[in-house]
Amino acid sequence: MAKSKDVRITVILECTSCVRNVGNKVSTGISRYMTQKNQHNTPNQLELRKFCPYCYKHTIHGEIKK
Prior knowledge:
The chain is built from 1 helix and 4 strands. It is mainly beta and 66 residues long. The protein has a single domain, classed as CATH 2.20.28.120. The protein has a 4-stranded antiparallel sheet.
């Protein structure tokens, strides 16, 4: 049988606006989402617009390192 190359990997997306406001103690937490991406189709870091429950609006969530 052929060996699988694990093309799809699990990544963590973190809210970029919550990270900036942590020093000011504006937000009560950091919004994080888990998703999968294809390494061959998207070799660069992933950024998606998701809802942040701490900011109460849709913001850009960027990929972080594990």
